[in-house]
Amino acid sequence: MTDQTRTTQAPLGIDELRKLVAEGEIDTVVVAITDSLGRLQGKRCGARSFLEDVLGHGAEGCNYLLSVDVEMNTVDGYAMSSWENGYGDMAMRPDVSTLRLVPWLPGTAMIQCDILWPDGRPVSQSPRQILRAQIERLEAMGYRAHIGTELEFIMFDDTYEEAWKTNYEGLTPSTRYNIDYSLLATAKLEPVIRSIRTGMEKAGLIVESSKGECNYGQQEITFRYAEALTACDNHAFYKNGAKEIAAQQGKSITFMAKYNEREGNSCHIHFSLTDLDGKPVLAGDGEHGFSPIMEHFIAGQLASLKEMAYFLAPNINSYKRFVEGSFAPTAIAWGLDNRSCALRVVGHGAGLRVENRVGGGDVNPYLAAAALIAAAIHGIENELPLEAVTQGSAYQSMADRIPTTMRESRELLAASEIARKSFGDEVVDHYVHAAGVELKAYDSAVTDWERRRVFERL
Fold first, then answer.
1. What is the predicted pLDDT for the residue at 10?
2. What integer is the mean pLDDT of 286-302?
3. 106 shares its domain with 139
4. CATH number, domain at 369?
5. pLDDT tens-digit profile of 226-271?
6. Which of 15, 17, 41, 38 lies closest to 29, judged by CA?
7. Do 207 and 281 sit in the same domain of this protein?
8. Do 315 and 170 share a structural domain?
9. Spatial separation of the C-alpha atoms in residues 115 and 35, rounded to whole Å
């Protein structure tokens, strides 16, 4: 079969991969990790070498992969990686549960990895390891986390190369007006959007829907929820793959939280709990149909949100999305099907869940999910009481506010007892330093905005 007609669904089993390699259908296996910025990084391995060597022993990668800036520059000040320790290797250990086809790349499969030190110890600063640790804490309490992420992006008719040459200015959005829920306008984008949907289905993700959004060229594609680690693996795979598919068709897409002064790109995260047997635990006989666990679950997220906002808003640009009346939240409040709140409770019965609306399209899913789980644990362990529901617009409420700058988030994270108890000093210090690196780069940059305002008139 050709790559276009294959119907096999991922995840692939190792035995099936061996068969496909022997038949000549798969010749490349991408070995991938997710870095501190949420990007897939790694190597392309020959399929035979992967099966005979990498599968059993892992692949190697420089330990700077978790300690660089967005430009891949080495950065001083990280405990785990430096010139002083020689920038040695880490091991990428394949997780066979993530093995899948990459249908839009000929002869290619992908596997996602945990990151270990050469002696076999997990690298605590790795986003996937951070999430694993929180999942283990939660499961020790008898609960399992389920996550669904909803990513928005803006698509342009320009290629990535054209966008680069113009310094990302004057790009042509793929639509000319607000196309929220429009079927006519989104039909015009179907060559690309359908390719993304069908590509992801063939790779094993279950697509729920795609729809137009408010900003010009803005789209959202949603996938069925899953256990937390699987959902984040799928998120990272999708985000990388959507860019690849768009590029193949001469388009470019951005997941940046705030591309322009119109609506930003969100990443709403739907979060629920079951017991270890899969029985939902959030619905009950209390007010609003809540169980006591649900009340503590929400209260913990409210109590932790300000201190751990960095894990939901990890870039300078993230904070420009928090504008009143923009469908992005500003108030640390919860409501029943209320889109003005940071936490929107939706569903009922077994489908009862909390939608966290704080994250943007630039979020690192593992860090965001880990923060939400840690916050839930904090609420449940301490049996925190739930504050009153917000009625009406949270934008007009007296509720505490989400941090409006990375500098504020960095300071709050550095001082957070909840974060340090949940993640440990190694992890918190690593990401506090990452925020400082970004702030230093931003503070030294001279922007187009400054030149336009000052060049002639001042």
1. 52
2. 97
3. no
4. 3.30.590.10
5. 999 999 999 999 999 999 999 999 999 999 999 999 999 999 999 9
6. 17
7. yes
8. yes
9. 10
Rounded Cα gap, residues 260 and 24, in angstroms: 46
Amino acid of residue 141: M
Structural domain including 75 reads: 14-118
Task: Please answer whether residues 215 and 259 qualify as being in contact, where contact means their C-beta atoms are separated by less than 8 angstroms.
Answer: yes
d(CA 364, CA 355): 17
Structural domain contains residue 421: yes
Q: Is 452 exposed, middle or buried (0-12, 13-18, 19+ CB in 10 A)?
A: exposed
Q: How far is CA 260 from CA 180, 316, 317, 442, in A?
A: 17, 14, 10, 18
Contact 301, 353 (CB under 8 A): no
Nearest to 203 by CA among 229, 242, 145: 242
Q: Are 236 and 149 in contact (CB under 8 A)?
A: no
CB 328 within 8 A of CB 257: no
Question: For residue 11, is the peptide bond before it cis, meaning its omega torsion is within 30 degrees of 0?
Answer: yes
Task: Find where tokens 């068969």 sit.
Answer: 19
Q: Answer yes or no: is 438 within a domain.
A: yes
The predicted model scores a pTM of 0.95
In a domain, 146, yes or no: yes
- Where does 257-366 show beta strands of DSSP type E? 267-275, 334-336, 343-346, 353-356
How many other β-carbons are positioned within 10 Å of the β-carbon of residue 343?
Answer: 23
Helix (H) or strand (E) holding 125: none
Q: Is the peptide bond before 94 cis (omega within 30 degrees of 0)?
A: no
Instruction: Report in angstroms the alpha-carbon separations of 257 from 250, 280, 307, 440, 457.
Output: 22, 32, 20, 20, 31
Write down which residue in 64, 88, 118 finishes a domain: 118
Domain boundary among 90, 118, 146: 118
Q: What is the pLDDT of residues 65-85, one digit of tens each?
A: 999 999 999 999 999 988 888
Distance from the Cα of residue 129 to its chain's centroid:
15
Q: How many separate domains does the chain show?
A: 2
Same domain, 207 and 327: yes
Q: Let me know how long the chain is.
A: 458
Nearest-angstrom CA–CA distance, 7 and 424: 44
Dihedral sign, Cα of residue 6, residue 7, residue 8, residue 11: positive
- Compute the distance between CA of residue 458 and CA of residue 455 in angstroms, rounded to an integer: 7
